[in-house]
């Protein structure tokens, strides 16, 4: 690594604090769903709809954030987003009913919209394509540690205090990140661009997403993060507590094991890509395999097809834990999508192109989370989880059909 590349490590890691915040705050419902429903007067379907506002607001703001990254630089965008996100966490802690929690989720979604794109764009502009593949995995791995905080630690915090303390803890992460970003992330000055309207910029991003080299990736990522947010962020906890009879802390421990795999997985994905190549095959194969893991989890539940086949009322929790760990490690190959996007555009367009991909990540999450709420009202957590398995299969096959030969 050159001295210039080595000097980028600390700013990238500091920018990852925003991604840690984002992952922590959006996965709070996984272990707090029951008390959130009780205190805010919500049904399971209503909670899914309200928390679905997070990825919807995230997706709505994603394109302007990508344009801002190219126009104004990473540092200034990161400082603005951290301020908005910190305010959203405080609003979450103060929520007293459905509408106030909905407002908090919208503000949080808008504030978190660039938390991954800030370190990713900073790295894309300063690193070679080969090194970017490794660093994009590292950025995802560091950011996913935020989900470690919302597993067992959050479960213990909820038992000791309440769910509001979880939002306040996330606000503390944002307050810590703000001065560090201001001091340690250089104020980058993107190359001067001719005056353009926001509409022209948005049309350019749309054209990028429709390029033959990128449109298959956009279809692929539509279900990719949705599955992570669905299992780890919302329905994993209710499935373990309702379907397997675990208490909150025990469910948090199982989700913690899944999160450790989600943290290690992106690092392995980058290394595997450098060694064996074939990113499209790795992407599609990993997500089809994860769809199978979800169906096996559902099949081992009460009255599930696999439990019935084996003559058991329900398969043990160890079955779910093993499959959730496997899911966390393999689904993390989604990070390779960023490498495909980065290689398809020049560095000065990296912010727009990567943000377009992230838009599809989160618009898909909003769509599938809303759909999972409807399915949960019909068939409980098992039906909600199956929604994500079907989405992974459809979008992976679409990716294979649309990718350039």
Termini separation comes to 33 Å
Query: What is the general shape?
Result: globular
Mean pLDDT: 84
Strand content: under 5%
Organism: Falsiroseomonas tokyonensis
Keywords: Membrane, Transmembrane, Transmembrane helix, Transport
Protein name: MFS transporter
Subcellular location: Endomembrane system
Could you explain how this protein is built, in words?
- The chain has a single domain, classed as Growth Hormone, Chain: A.
- The protein contains 19 helices and no strands.
- It is mainly alpha-helical.
- 83% of the residues lie in helices and 0% in strands.
- It is globular, with a radius of gyration of 20 Å.
- The chain starts with a helix and ends with a helix.
- It has helices at residues 3-6, 9-26, 29-40, 44-51, 53-72, 74-94, 98-112, 117-126, 129-149, 152-160, 163-184, 198-210, 212-243, 248-276, 279-299, 305-309, 317-331, 336-344, 350-402.
